[in-house]
C-alpha cells in the first residue's frame, strides 16, 4: 500500500470527518486517496488561509483534532498565519504540506520550499519526512503532541515521492487521547484554604474556561465573588448572572474597570487567561496591586509572565475548579442562593449607527446564535455592547487579530456544531481578504449568515490614526462596493441595509432560514468613536 494510504486509514481510526485545504500537485496523492475514504469529506476552500481558520474553529468546537492541508511552496506559506492563530489559541490542528521529491531538494524544483523551519515557531512540532516508512509514525507522533499536555498545532511536510512509495501494510497505532492535568491534592487544599480565608475577592476568567462554565459559576457562587471576563471570554458568562461585572480589557466595561482599579478585594483568582495585553488593558498593574494572585491554567508558561503569581495551579480548568469546589465544601464554604436578575433590554434608538444595528440584529436572530467576530471597528462595538444570551455564543479573535479569520471560523464552527445558528460579523476590509469563502459555504450548503459591516474604509485603522495622530490618510478608504450585489452574482441570498428602517422582517426573511449561506450587507459609515480608547492610549505611549 502507498504510505499516504496508511495516513488516511489512521485518520479514519481517529474519526476525522473533514480535511480543510486545497489540492495541488504535491498533495494530489493525498486527495486521490480520499476517493476511497467516504467517511472523510474534503472541504476545498478558495484560499489556504481561510482553510486554516476553518480547521482551527472546527478543532475548538469539537474539542478534537482537525486536519488542514496545502501544497508545497505557496500553499504551505498561506497556512502559516492560521498555524500561528491556532498556536495562540492552543488548538490541536495538524497542518500537512506537500514537498518536492527528496532527490530534487536544492535543485530549484517547482514550488520548492523548506517548510518545516517556517512552522517551528508557530507549532508545537514541525518535521519533514524523507522516508515512506516513517510517514505514518511521524504523523502519529505529531498528533500525539498536538493533543496532549497543552494542545496546539503541529506540522508535517510530505514529499511527493514519499507519499507515493509502497510500504508493507502497517499496524495502525491507537489514536491519542488527552489525559487531564490536575494539581496535587495538597496544592488544591492549600488554595482552597486561601480562598476560604480571604475576606473578599473576584474571579478573572478567560476563554480557557470554555467547557467548564458551570463549574466556574458554581465556584463563584460558592465564594460569592464577582466575575470579570476578558474580551476573548465574552459569551461564556451570561449577562443576567448576578455576579457578572462585565469585560475588562479591550473595549471593556466601566463596572469591571472600577472593580479592578478602585475595588478593595484582597484576592484575584484567574481562570483560563494568560493575562495578555488585550485582556488586561495593556498589563494594568491594578489587577494584582495589594492582592493575592491565584492562577489556574493548563499552560504552566503563563505563570509569572507579567504578574507575580502567589499560588499557581497547573491543571485543566474543569477538573481543577471542580476539585476546588469539593475542597471548599469540605472546609464548610457552601453556595448561598443569589437573587435572580432579568436580562438587560438594549435601548435601541433610531440613529443609524453600529451600536443600534448590532443590538437590533441580535434581537431578531435566534437566542442561541453563535457569532464569529472578525477584526475591525465593529469588533469593539460587539465586545462592549452585544448581549450574552446563551453559552459559548461569541468567537472573538482579538488577541491574534487576523483580518478575515471570522469568515472561515464561522464555516468551521457550523460544521462542528451544525444544529446551532451561526453568524459571521465581518467588515468590508476582511471580506475583500477572504469573502470568496462565501462560495465555499454555498458549494457545501453550509447555512452561515455573513453580516458585512461596509463602511468603504479600514475602519479600525481610520479611527486609530484619528485618535493617535489626529489625522487619517485618505488611502485608508476603499472603493465603494455593493457587496450584496457580489453575493447575488454568486447566487447567494442577500439583503442590503442603509437605514434602521431597512432592518425589517421583509428584508430579513430573504436571508434567514435558507438552505445555504446568506449575506446581510450593512452600508454604514459610523463616525462615532468606537470603544477602543485604551488600545490607542497604549500605542500612543511609545515615542514619548
Automatic annotation (TrEMBL):
Molecular-function GO terms, alphabetical: acetolactate synthase activity; flavin adenine dinucleotide binding; magnesium ion binding; thiamine pyrophosphate binding
CDD domains assigned: TPP_enzymes (cd00568), TPP_PYR_POX_like (cd07035)
Boundaries of every Thiamine pyrophosphate enzyme TPP-binding domain copy: 374-522
Essential cofactor(s): thiamine diphosphate
Occurrences of domain Thiamine pyrophosphate enzyme central (ranges): 190-324
Record-linked InterPro entries: DHS-like_NAD/FAD-binding_dom (IPR029035), THDP-binding (IPR029061), Thiamin_PyroP_enz_cen_dom (IPR012000), Thiamin_PyroP_enz_TPP-bd_dom (IPR012001), TPP-bd_CS (IPR000399), TPP_enz (IPR045229), TPP_enzyme_TPP-bd (IPR011766)
GO cellular component: acetolactate synthase complex
Example of a GO biological process term: isoleucine biosynthetic process
Keywords annotated in UniProt: Thiamine pyrophosphate
Residue ranges of domain Thiamine pyrophosphate enzyme N-terminal TPP-binding in the record: 2-113
Pfam families in the record: TPP_enzyme_C, TPP_enzyme_M, TPP_enzyme_N
SUPFAM superfamilies in the record: DHS-like NAD/FAD-binding domain, Thiamin diphosphate-binding fold (THDP-binding)
Transmembrane segments: none
Keyword field contains Aminoacyl-tRNA synthetase: no
Recorded family membership: Belongs to the TPP enzyme family.
PANTHER family in the cross-refs: ACETOLACTATE SYNTHASE CATALYTIC SUBUNIT, MITOCHONDRIAL (PTHR18968:SF13), THIAMINE PYROPHOSPHATE ENZYMES (PTHR18968)
Protein name: Acetolactate synthase
Lineage start: Bacteria, Bacillati, Bacillota, Bacilli, Bacillales
Amino acid at each position: 500500500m502507498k504510505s499516504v494510504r496508511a495516513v488516511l486509514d489512521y485518520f479514519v481510526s481517529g474519526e476525522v470527518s473533514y480535511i480543510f485545504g486545497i489540492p495541488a500537485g504535491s498533495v494530489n496523492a493525498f486527495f486521490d486517496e480520499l476517493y476511497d475514504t467516504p467517511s472523510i469529506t474534503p472541504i476545498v476552500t478558495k484560499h489556504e488561509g481561510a482553510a486554516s481558520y476553518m480547521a482551527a474553529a472546527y478543532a475548538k468546537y469539537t474539542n478534537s483534532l482537525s486536519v488542514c492541508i496545502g501544497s508545497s511552496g505557496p500553499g504551505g506559506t498561506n497556512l502559516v498565519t492560521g498555524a500561528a492563530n491556532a498556536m495562540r489559541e492552543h488548538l490541536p490542528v495538524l497542518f500537512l504540506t506537500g514537498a518536492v521529491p527528496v532527490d530534487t531538494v536544492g535543485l530549484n524544483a517547482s514550488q520548492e520550499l523548506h517548510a518545516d523551519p517556517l512552522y517551528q515557531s508557530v507549532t508545537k512540532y514541525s518535521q519533514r519526512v524523507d522516508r515512506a516508512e516513517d510517514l505514518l509514525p511521524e504523523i502519529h507522533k505529531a498528533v500525539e503532541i498536538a493533543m496532549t499536555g497543552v494542545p496546539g498545532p503541529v506540522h508535517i511536510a510530505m514529499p511527493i515521492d514519499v507519499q507515493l512509495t509502497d510500504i508493507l501494510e502497517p499496524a495502525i497505532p491507537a489514536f491519542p487521547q488527552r489525559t487531564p492535568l490536575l494539581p496535587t491534592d495538597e496544592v488544591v487544599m492549600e488554595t482552597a484554604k486561601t480562598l476560604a480565608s480571604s475576606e473578599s475577592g473576584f474571579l478573572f476568567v478567560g476563554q480557557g474556561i470554555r467547557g467548564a462554565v458551570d463549574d466556574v459559576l458554581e465556584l463563584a457562587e460558592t465564594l460569592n465573588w464577582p466575575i470579570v471576563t476578558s474580551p476573548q471570554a465574552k459569551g461564556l458568562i451570561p449577562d443576567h448572572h448576578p455576579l457578572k461585572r462585565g469585560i475588562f480589557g479591550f473595549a471593556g466595561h466601566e463596572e469591571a474597570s472600577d472593580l479592578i482599579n478602585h475595588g478593595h478585594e484582597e484576592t484575584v483568582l484567574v481562570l483560563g487567561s494568560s493575562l495578555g495585553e488585550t485582556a488586561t488593558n495593556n498589563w494594568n498593574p491594578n489587577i494584582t496591586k495589594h492582592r493575592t494572585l491565584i492562577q489556574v491554567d493548563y499552560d504552566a508558561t503563563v505563570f509569572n509572565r507579567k504578574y507575580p503569581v502567589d499560588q499557581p495551579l497547573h491543571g485543566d480548568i474543569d477538573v481543577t475548579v471542580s476539585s476546588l469546589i469539593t475542597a471548599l465544601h469540605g472546609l464548610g464554604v457552601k453556595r448561598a442562593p443569589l437573587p435572580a436578575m432579568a436580562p438587560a433590554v438594549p435601548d435601541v434608538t433610531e440613529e443609524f449607527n453600529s451600536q443600534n444595528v448590532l443590538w437590533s440584529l441580535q434581537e431578531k436572530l435566534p437566542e442561541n446564535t453563535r457569532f464569529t467576530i472578525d477584526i475591525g471597528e465593529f469588533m469593539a462595538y460587539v465586545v462592549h455592547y452585544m448581549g450574552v444570551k446563551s453559552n459559548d455564543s461569541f468567537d472573538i479573535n482579538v488577541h491574534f487579530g487576523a483580518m478575515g479569520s471570522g469568515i472561515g471560523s464561522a464555516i468551521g464552527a457550523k460544521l462542528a456544531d451544525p444544529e446551532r445558528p451561526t453568524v459571521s460579523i465581518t467588515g468590508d476590509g476582511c471580506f475583500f481578504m477572504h469573502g470568496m469563502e462565501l462560495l465555499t459555504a454555498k458549494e457545501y450548503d453550509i447555512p452561515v449568515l455573513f453580516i458585512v459591516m461596509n463602511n468603504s474604509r479600514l475602519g479600525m485603522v481610520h479611527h486609530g490614526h484619528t485618535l493617535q495622530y489626529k489625522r487619517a490618510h485618505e488611502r485608508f478608504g476603499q472603493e465603494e462596493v455593493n457587496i450584496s450585489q457580489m453575493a447575488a452574482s454568486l447566487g447567494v441570498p442577500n439583503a442590503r441595509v442603509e437605514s434602521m428602517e431597512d432592518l425589517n422582517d421583509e428584508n430579513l426573511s430573504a436571508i434567514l432560514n435558507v438552505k445555504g449561506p446568506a449575506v446581510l450587507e450593512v452600508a454604514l459609515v459610523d463616525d462615532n468613536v468606537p470603544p477602543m480608547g485604551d488600545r490607542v492610549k497604549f500605542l500612543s505611549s511609545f515615542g514619548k
